């Protein structure tokens, strides 16, 4: 198990192996050692790989976020073929970071709709509520989002113009753990 924010292994974390359709029945369990390294050894009928996967998984500790999806409570990977020994497998996590995103209307352009998403890895985009063009919309508009520390959070904005044309913009911010992170996006 690897803390990608601080570039350290997480020691003493439980890791388990289980068959895909039997998540409550562990084939084996172990604990991460020094530098977050773990080794799993188990016996299984290799025919299970014809129809099922073996999952390797661990709970995400408090204060961390998955590299794949922030709502996950576990991180892991699947094995779909018999492998006598797995080594150098990393269950990668980031420390959580709080980010304040402020949208500040400074332009006078006319648009029908603006959508915004963000991500901290290439695996998943998260939505920020849609901003409809409205003269009564408070300015600025601020959102508080959960993201990953130690990496860039990319914020994408897509404007749909009355002509039907769509324009896309991208901003990014490097977030730190245990601090106030913020970005103001003028649009």
Features:
mainly beta; 2 domains; 6-stranded mixed sheet; 4-stranded antiparallel sheet; 14 strands
Characterize the structure shown.
- It is a single chain.
- With 187 residues, the protein is mostly beta strands.
- The protein folds into two domains: 2-95, Sandwich (Immunoglobulin-like); 97-186, Immunoglobulin-like.
- 0% of the residues lie in helices and 48% in strands.
- Strands 1, 2, 6, 8, 11 and 14 form a six-stranded mixed beta sheet that branches. It has a four-stranded antiparallel beta sheet with strand order 4-3-5-7, with no helix packed on it.
- A hairpin with a 6-residue loop joins β3 and β4.
- It is elongated, with a radius of gyration of 21 Å.
- The protein starts with a strand and ends with a strand.
SSE topology sketch:
Blueprint: E1 2-3, E2 8-9, E3 14-19, E4 26-31, E5 54-59, E6 64-66, E7 74-79, E8 92-104, E9 113-119, E10 126-132, E11 141-148, E12 152-160, E13 166-174, E14 181-186
Parallel strand pairs: 1-8, 8-14
Antiparallel strand pairs: 1-2, 3-4, 3-5, 5-7, 6-8, 8-11, 9-10, 9-12, 12-13
Beta-strand portion reads: over 45%
Structural class, judged by helices and strands?
A: mainly beta
Helix content: under 10%
Average pLDDT reading: 86
How many separate domains make up the residues?
2
**Number of helical runs?**
0
Query: What's the architecture of the largest domain, going by CATH?
Result: Sandwich
Poorly predicted sequence stretches spanning 5 or more consecutive residues: none
Whole-angstrom Rg = 21 Å
CA-CA gap between termini? 40 Å
Q: What is the number of E strands?
A: 14
- What's the shape? elongated
The profile of the biggest β sheet is: 6 strands, mixed
